[in-house]
Amino acid sequence: MWSYILRRVLLAIPTFIGISLITFFIMHLAPGDPATMALQGDSIGKGMSAANIEQMKETLGLNDALPVQYFRWMKRLVCLDLGESLKDHRKVTEKIWEALPNTLLLNLLALIVVYIVSLPLGVFSAEKQNTFFDKSITTALFILYAIPVIWLALLLIMLFYVKLNWFPASGIQSLDSEYMRWWPWLFDRLKHMILPLVCFSYAGFAVISRYVRSSMLEVIRQDYIRTARAKGLSEHKVIYKHALSNALIPIVTLLGLELPGLLGGSVIIEQIFSWPGLGWLFFDALNSRDYTVIMGLTVFTSILVLLSTLLSDILYAVVDPRIHYE
Amino acid sequence: MNKKSYRHFIFRKILHNRLALTGGIFIIILSLIAFFASLIANDKPILVIYQNRLLLPCIYVPQDLKQADWLNIINKSDFSISPPIPYSPIGVNLNECLLAPSPSHWLGTDENGRDVLARMIHGSRISLQVGIIAVGISLIVGVYLGAMAGYYGGWLDSLISRFIEIMMCFPFFFLVLAVMAFLEPGIYKIMIVIGLTSWTGIARLTRGEFIKIRNEEYILAARCLGLSNSKIIFRHILPNAIAPVLVSATFGIASAVLVESSLTFLGFGVQIPTASWGEILSQGHKYLTIAWWLPLFPGLAIFLTVLAYNLLGEGLRDALDPRLTGSGDSW
Amino acid sequence: MVTQPILKISHLSSSFKSGHNYIKVVDDLSLHINPGEVVGLVGESGSGKTVTALSILQLSNCLLEGSIELNKHELIGMKQEELRNIRGKKIGIIFQEPMSSLNPVFTIGKQIAEVIENHEKISHKQASLKAISLLENVGISQPDIRYHEYPHQMSGGMCQRVMIAMAIACQPQLLIADEPTTALDVSIQSQIITLLKDLKKQYNMSILLITHDLGIVAQLADRVAVMYAGQIVEDAPIKEFIKKPEHPYTLGLIKSLPGKHKHGEKLFSIPGTVPNPLSWPNGCHFHPRCSYVEDQCKVNNPCLFEVSPGRQSRCFFAGRLPDEK
After folding, report:
1. Which residues 116-155 of B have a C-beta within 8 angstroms of A?
2. Whether ipTM exceeds 0.95
3. Which of C59, C86, C166 sits opposite A226 (nearest CB)?
4. Which listed CATH number (1.10.3720.10, 2.40.160.100, 2.30.30.40, 3.40.309.10) goes with B127-321?
5. What's the average pLDDT block by block, 10 residues per block, for chain C (325 residues)?
6. How far apart are CA B83 and CA B38, in angstroms?
7. What's the pTM value of the predicted model, to 2 decimals?
């Protein structure tokens, strides 16, 4: 097992380098260059002469060859220095650090909700394959999956906020939350979380439960399930002990694959619900053409994805005895 | 089964799948609407006989009438046929903004007084164009890279697989938006960017199929006959590998339509005044409390389009699944 | 004194559901197994022998007609809880592919202990001790260490021993062995057969040995039943069978054994191929390939005629087939 894990970790390093290369490439797609763009964002800078801009470029090292610039950037990247925001000159890492917990909270909760709902759903659908239950669940999930998140979010707000006023439509807490006691404060936070949480999780229901269902169906066809029945075990034990334990192994790896989708969705959902997370920060940076924050976030989220993929690979090695005991 | 009868076989299977058929019909209707959008929703008449000239203003406007007031011309004309929805998608009319659905504006109007239905009809053009062309690009890139990796193996495979893995680390929207932020927006740029960032799934699929097929005996036979590599790839392996890729491409079109709408919703897609479903939705976000028709209808359109393509993709997948065609059971 | 057969199969038919039709793969099969007897069920692939074995424990997804009696209790139509009481306890079964027949995520020891715990009211610790002694019994060295190993850490032969241990753990009256050695190396094959012989003596159980290998049957079985295209065509004590088969098909089988040929002579094979269940011929299933065929064979399906006490053959000419030189 440890050799497998070591191999995966080592493979992550060229992937990390690749991520940085592509990010660097995108940064230099812009028609202008970082200096001019930085100065354009700054009202004082607009009045600078061409000679001053040249000097600025020299100082920032923008006239050096691209590979040199790349290595310099890489060095800073490895030291976790993502530069300064062009908008308010705060460190990018600081802004990310502030926004990260909010996004992680929603994403992790969404993952938990998705799995809590999808696992039983997938198992029951497999057990009752082709019955009315199975077919209607599959249909309902299929329709649910096709709903665009931008539409669902707006519909939810229209229904639950505008019409019913059950849940708020923006922010992570109410304005007077600082004055609340412990229990109402928690309740307030939960109320703010519900609508965005639904938007994050609904698509996952269809995907994960379908995976669980097909994994279970695959496993149930195996020889060792026939052996379990031949031993005289109850059908309950056959399905929930013998079949499920095998079916869940590939599902574990899906954990890592869900994260890129969730992070991508956060750009839209956090913007709609004014949830101050990474996606909202990204959107804000896009609008103000804050290039350092844009690139910093792109690199950061990619590395998050890389780490979560690595984590789910490691989890797979731990959980599957065939890899664990090699 | 030879190739022609195989295609007929698959086609018949899809026809028997009523849901897939419904999806397919919806897509055909939508495509027709998109294609004839100018004739369906326009403030200019389809056909008008004016001053003894026969004009087809929806298709071509002669130089001297470029700035004409068409309402006037219709009134003064000898004969005219107007489109069923006599509104332009981009004509601003501030007297009529934010009106609820009514007999004169079936789906209401937006903040600039433009008819929502007209905008949606023209918006279908954008959605379908972006969907198909973006997927076309990702097909070309994905199939090519996947085929190279799957067929040649070795270091080329390792390199391409590593590249695919790297690309898959970028959360899709972050990548697309980051690129769009650095470039000036435009519909063709959107198509290219979506195409160049969503080929990874197709590449993986193609690679898997090529690896499976490359070891089959008829390929070994072709090699022994001395056929060149490119001939083997394109004429022998590719037609057999393409089936699951097409299924993926169908789902990809649905995804691309979603992405375009989302990009435009965020303000980084097609720019005003071009009509797009996402743009109407973003207005819906702004006027959520007072204009329920603005979020409802374009969202419904996106939903139905995505559903239709998903149904078609599922139907295709079921039709191509060898297990369901009832071949060979052994006991 | 007439011994009651432990297992009595009468006129069993098994049919698979395919689309809207049912395809019969076992046709009017009758077989009985006496206590302590080893019966070999022999046939080529596609003859229906595995389906027969699975149908006894109702592990095949087939529609069953006819009767299967275990000690006078009818198994077909039995309630699920009673059936579970029989599986693993009164009847044990081992399969052809031992490595895929064991659950890859549980240790082999736990899987053996599981069947013991399921049928007997003993503690987990006692069950594992019993499992360890079973492992020793089937010839696995260092059983207390092997107990904690996973199937993928063991060879095919060892996995089959584990399967045997699992199947006999509750001392069943009947062990069904479905092609137990087909997937194993030849050197391991004889070890497994010897093991089965020893265990049969030790536990005094009957064995239904299903195989396509006449050699194994000759080593282990007391009686042999030959299947062809879903039917039993001959049922005889093993020695009499090998000396003189009484059915054209079995005649052909014995003739095609390489040992019976002179050096340099062309090997005999029965012309034609085994029909699949979708295209069983009318009348006798074997008639298109038979060298003794007559008109009535093409129309009527022969039943099992008694050739001599304890010997049956499904042929109109049973007992009257000319001797081969």
Report:
1. none
2. no
3. C59
4. 1.10.3720.10
5. 82 88 89 92 86 91 90 89 91 93 94 93 92 93 92 93 94 93 88 92 92 88 91 90 86 78 76 84 86 84 84 84 59
6. 9
7. 0.83
